[in-house]
Amino acid sequence: MWIYEKKLEHPVKISCPDVAFAKLVITQYGGPDGELSASLRYLNQRYSMPFDNAKALLTDIGTEELAHMEMIAALVYKLTEGACPEDYQAAGWGGQYVQHDNGLFWTDANGIPWSAKYIAALGDPITDLVEDMAAEQKARATYEHLIQMTSDPCVKDMLRFLWEREVVHFQRFGEMLNTVQDWQAQKQHLWCGHRPPEEETEED
Amino acid sequence: MWIYEKKLEHPVKISCPDVAFAKLVITQYGGPDGELSASLRYLNQRYSMPFDNAKALLTDIGTEELAHMEMIAALVYKLTEGACPEDYQAAGWGGQYVQHDNGLFWTDANGIPWSAKYIAALGDPITDLVEDMAAEQKARATYEHLIQMTSDPCVKDMLRFLWEREVVHFQRFGEMLNTVQDWQAQKQHLWCGHRPPEEETEED
Amino acid sequence: MWIYEKKLEHPVKISCPDVAFAKLVITQYGGPDGELSASLRYLNQRYSMPFDNAKALLTDIGTEELAHMEMIAALVYKLTEGACPEDYQAAGWGGQYVQHDNGLFWTDANGIPWSAKYIAALGDPITDLVEDMAAEQKARATYEHLIQMTSDPCVKDMLRFLWEREVVHFQRFGEMLNTVQDWQAQKQHLWCGHRPPEEETEED
Amino acid sequence: MWIYEKKLEHPVKISCPDVAFAKLVITQYGGPDGELSASLRYLNQRYSMPFDNAKALLTDIGTEELAHMEMIAALVYKLTEGACPEDYQAAGWGGQYVQHDNGLFWTDANGIPWSAKYIAALGDPITDLVEDMAAEQKARATYEHLIQMTSDPCVKDMLRFLWEREVVHFQRFGEMLNTVQDWQAQKQHLWCGHRPPEEETEED
Amino acid sequence: MWIYEKKLEHPVKISCPDVAFAKLVITQYGGPDGELSASLRYLNQRYSMPFDNAKALLTDIGTEELAHMEMIAALVYKLTEGACPEDYQAAGWGGQYVQHDNGLFWTDANGIPWSAKYIAALGDPITDLVEDMAAEQKARATYEHLIQMTSDPCVKDMLRFLWEREVVHFQRFGEMLNTVQDWQAQKQHLWCGHRPPEEETEED
Amino acid sequence: MWIYEKKLEHPVKISCPDVAFAKLVITQYGGPDGELSASLRYLNQRYSMPFDNAKALLTDIGTEELAHMEMIAALVYKLTEGACPEDYQAAGWGGQYVQHDNGLFWTDANGIPWSAKYIAALGDPITDLVEDMAAEQKARATYEHLIQMTSDPCVKDMLRFLWEREVVHFQRFGEMLNTVQDWQAQKQHLWCGHRPPEEETEED
C-alpha cells in the first residue's frame, strides 16, 4: 500500500502561464510514453519478477513515477492557472476547456485518452526488463522534444530533472537485466519460468 | 508524492487457486469500474476542487484505491499461483496465458485493456463529486456480482471488505457534495468557478 | 419502436456560421458527455429497471436525448454551412474536412470517435440511476463551458434550452432514485435483485 | 425528433432461454455490423445527401434500425431471462454477468464496446451510399451466421425477418445510388459537391 | 511472401515543405480510409475468396496499397523535411513533434492511432467485395478533399495518381463482384459457403 | 514498393485442425506483440534512422515480418479448415464465426482488434532500436507460450522457426544499436538529431 506525503518529489515552478505548452506537456501525464504509462507498467510487472531485488526495483521506480505523474499534473495546473476560455481557444486547446474546464485529463497531446494498449507485460523477466528499458528511452526522447519546445528556464529545469531520472531508471533496469540473466544462467533448474523451446517437449 | 509501505491494506487469503474466478475478478483490476478507474479518477480530479478538505478527500480515497488495486493484484496472483497453461485453457482464459504468462494485465473480464474513456473529469466540483458517487455505486455492484460468483469463504471475506470500503467512500463523497453545495450557496462571489448560465452573458 | 416526426424538438438558429465553434460543440454530438452518450445509456438500461415507471422514464428521456442529438447535428450543419476547406483549416479543423467533408461524425472536440466505454450499465437500478444523475451533471457542465465559448446569442439560447433539459432530467432521475429506494425498502422479498452481501452465503 | 411507440416492429419470441446464444447475438446489438452501427451510420449521413428523397431514405432506414436494435435487445433479455450467475459462467459469459448483471451492454460477441470507428461518413453521396450497401451486406452475412448457430425455430424466424429487412435496405440503397448518379450526371453544375479532380485546379 | 524493391511505385515530388498539409495527408497513411486500411483489408480477406482469380486480385491490390502507403510516407517525410519544432507548432501539429519527432506514425489527421475497427471481413465473398468497393470510394473521396487543400502542383499530381488508382480498383472489385455472383448462380452446389437461410434448417 | 512472390517463407503444416489453438495463435496475427505489430513498427521507423544500413535493416526485417504474418494467416486457415459453427462454439470462439465466418481478422486471442497504440516511433534512433529489441523479446515470449499450448509437432516446428527468427532479429537490432551509438559518439556534429539537453539552451 502507499502513504501519501503532501509534497512534490521536486519543486515545480514556472515563469508564466503558457496554455500552448500545457497542451503539449500533458502527453507526459496521459500519453503513450508518459508517467502514467511508466508507473502502471512497472507496478503491474513486479509480481512476475523471479526474486525480491527485482520486485523491489519495479516497486520503487513504479512509485517514483507516480510522483513524477503528480509533478506533471502540478505543472499543467500552473501553466493553465487563471486561463480563460479564450486562452485555451488561442492555444488550439479549446476542446480541453469544453470537456474538462481547468481540470486535467489522462490524454496525450492530441486528446487521445490513455489506454493500457500502450504498455506490456509478458510475465517473462528478461522481456519485461527490456520493455522497461525501451519505455525509459521513449520517455527520455519525449522530454527532449518538450525541452526544445519551451523557452521558460524554470520549466526546462524541471523537465531536465525528470529527463535525468529516466536516464537513471534506464541504467537501473539495465543492471537488473544483467542480474536476472546471470541468475538464470546459474540457477535455471530452480526457476519455474520458461526454458528454451528446444527442451520443452521432453518434459511437458 | 507517495511512499510505498510493504504491506497490503487488508490481508488477501484464498482457500485454493481458481483460475476461472481470477478471469472474472480481474475486472476490478483493469475493468471499467475497477480500482484503477477509481484511483485515477480521484487523483486526477483533486486539483479542481474548490477547497482543501475536498482536495484532501480525493487524495485520501485515490490513494486508498491504489491499495485496493494492489489487493486485487495479490488476489489474482494467488488464484493463479502454480497454474499451468492447461488450467488457463480449461478456464477459458488461454489468451491471458499466451499474452501475459502468469503475469497480470490491466483488462476487464473480457480482456479489454483499460481506457481512460471509462472515467471523467469536468472540472466542476458538483459534477465530479456526483460522478464519484456513481463510480462507487458501480464498484459496489461489481463486488456484489463477484461475491455471488465465488464459493471460497476467504475470497468472499476479502471482497466484502472492499465492498464495505466502497459504501463508505460513497457516503464520504455524498457528505462532501453537501459541503461543496453549502459553500457555493454562501460564498459564490469568492469562487471563480461556473455561475448559472443566465448570469454569464452580462460579464463576458 | 420509434416514429420519426419531421421537426426539431426546439428550433435551431444561428446568427452566422462559425466553424471554430462547430469544432467545439460537436462534443455534444459524439463526445463522452454528449447527447449520443445520454441516449444510448438510458435506452440500454431501461430493461433492468424493476418497475414500469422507471422503465418509462428511461425510455422517455432516452428518446428525448435522440431529439437533442438531432438538434446538435442541425446546429453543427448550420455553423458549417457554406464553409470552404480554407475555413475549416483556419478553424484548426482541417482534418474534419479531409475525413468527412461537410458531413458530421460522432466525435468529441478532438476528433476521438465515440465509444461505448463512455457509458455504463450495471443492471442494478440504484447504481444505474446514480450513473444517470452523474451523466446529466456532466452534460450540464459541458453546456456551461460551451455557452462561455460562443458570443452568438441565438446559439446561447439554444444551448441554454438544452442545459435546462439536463437540469430537469437530473431532477427526474433523482426522484426516481428515491422511488426505487423506497420500493426496495418495502418490497425487498418480492424483488429478485441483489441482496446485501451479508445475507448471501446462507442461501447459495 | 422521434416519438416512441410502445411496441416492437415485429414480435420477439423464443422457445427457451439460451445464454450461450445471447452471447453471440449481442453482436447485432453493439458489434461492428449490428443495428446500432446501422442506425447511427444512416442518421448521421442524411444531412449531406443532395436532395430530399435521399435524406428521407436515410432517416427512414436509420429509424427502422433503431427498432431493430430494440428487437435485438428484447431478444437478448428473453434469452437471459431468469439466468443465474452459473448459467452465464457455463456459457462462457461470466464477464457479462460480473460487469452488467442481467443488463445489456453495447458490445460485440467478444465484449468489445461499440466504437464509431466501425462506421464512416465521407460527406460524398456516392461514397456514403456504397458504404451503406456494404453495411447491409455485412449485417446480412452476420444474420446468416447467427441463423446457423441457433436451433430455436422462433429465434430463427425473427432473425430471418431482420435478414430480409437488410436485403430490402440493400436494394433501396442501390436504387438511391442510381438516382443520385443520374442526378449528378444531369445537374452537376447546380450541385456544390465535388467535381472530378482534373477540373479543380483551374478554379481554386 | 513479399520482396522489397527499392523504388517507389510512382515518384513523390513536392515544391516546398508544408507541415500543415502533412498533418492532413497523414490520414491516408494511418487514418480510417487510408492506404494501411486498404492493404490490411484486402490481404486479410483473400483466403476466404472462393476461387483463385479472386484471391489473386485481393493479393495484387493489397500489395499495391502497401506501395501507396510507402508513397504517402515518403510524401509526409518530404513535406516535413527540415521542419523545426516551431514549424510543427505553427501548423497546429506540435503534438506530433513531441510524440514522434520528425518520424511518422499511423494516425489520422487528428492523431487517432489506426485501429482494425476501421475494416471488416465477413468471410462472405459478396459482402467482402462490396465492402472493398466502399473502401475504394472512401479513399477516393478523401483524396478529392486533400487535392482541394493543397496548392502545390507536384503534390496534386501525385495525389491524382493515387486517386486514379482507387477508381481503377473500384472497377476491378466491381467486375470481380459480378464474376463471383455469376459463379455462385452457376455452381452453388459445389461451393461450401452460405446458402440462402430458407434452405438452412433442413440440413443442420 | 513490394513484389508478391507466391510462396510462404517457410512451409506451414499441421497434423490436424484445432480451432481452440487457432483462437490462441491469432494473437501473433493481430495481437499486441504479433507479426503485424512488428512489421508496421519497423516499416514506419525506417525513415528516421540516421544512415542507410539502419534504414535497410528496418526495411528487411519489416518485410520479413510481413511474410511471418502471412505464415500465421496460413496456419490459422489450416487450423480452422472445414470447421463448422459448432466447432467454433466448442472452442469458445463462436463470436469469431459469427463475426468473420471462416475468415480471419486482426485481433488478439480475446478478439480485441489491432491498434497502433501497441507500437511506437519516437524518431530517435537509439530509442526506436531499443523499442524494437523489446518488441522482439515480446514476440519471442509469446511464441514460447504458444509452443507450450499445442501438442502438434508440425505446429511446434513452425512456431520454433518463427521463434528463432525473433531471436535473430533481436541480435541484429542489438548490433545496429551499437553501430548507431558508435556513430553518434564519433560524428555527432554532422548529425542533426537530438543533442544532450544540457547543450540545448545555448543554441535555441
Q: Helical proportion of chain A?
A: 55-70%
Number of strands of chain A: 1
* Broad CATH class of chain A: Mainly Alpha
Assembly type of the chains comes to: homohexamer
- CATH topology of chain A, by name, is Ferritin
Q: Find the structural class of chain A using helix and strand composition.
A: mainly alpha
The domain tally of chain A reads 1
Beta-strand share of residues of chain A: under 5%
Shape of chain A: elongated
- CATH homology group of chain A: Ferritin, core subunit, four-helix bundle
Family (chains A, B, C, D, E, F): Belongs to the manganese catalase family.
Binding site for Mn(2+) (chains A, B, C, D, E, F): 35, 65, 68, 136, 169
Cofactor (chains A, B, C, D, E, F): Mn(2+); Ca(2+)
Protein name (chains A, B, C, D, E, F): Catalase
Fold and architecture overview:
6 copies of one chain form a homohexamer. With 204 residues, chain A is mainly α. The first copy, chain A, has one domain: Ferritin. Chain A has 9 helices and 1 strand. Chain A has helices at residues 19-25, 27-30, 35-45, 52-79, 85-90, 94-100, 125-148, 153-187, 197-203; one strand spanning 2-4. In chain A, helix 1 runs antiparallel to helix 4 (52-79). The model of chain A is unreliable at 189-204 (pLDDT under 50). The interface between C and D is large, with 46 and 45 residues.
Brief characterization of the structure:
6 copies of one chain form a homohexamer. Chain A is mainly alpha-helical.
